[in-house]
Design goal:
Layout (H helix, E strand, L loop, with lengths): L4 E5 L4 H12 L3 E6 L2 H13 L3 E6 L5 H9 L1
Parallel strand pairs: 1-2, 2-3
Length: 73
């Protein structure tokens, strides 16, 4: 996964956060997404604190316009 870009939804907690951390440990560059801004920011800090690359985004992925905006970023 080194230098690959991955979008992980639900990354604020639970399985989504665990997947994001695992991908970061494998060298992926992450765009992590959650509806909860505080939670996704916390996950991003945990990843970057261990040397990983993660940018947090807040979005409701049930809304097509928000998903489109996210992908365009």
């Amino acid at each position: 996964m080194k230098h690959k870009v991955a979008i992980v939804t639900g990354a604020g907690q639970g399985i989504g956060a665990a997947i994001a951390k695992r991908l970061a440990a494998s060298g992926a560059i992450l765009a992590i997404v959650d509806i909860n801004a505080e939670a996704v920011a916390r996950t991003a800090r945990e990843i970057t604190g261990t040397g990983g690359a993660a940018e947090p985004y807040t979005a409701d992925i049930s809304r097509k316009t928000q998903v489109t905006e996210l992908v365009n970023k």
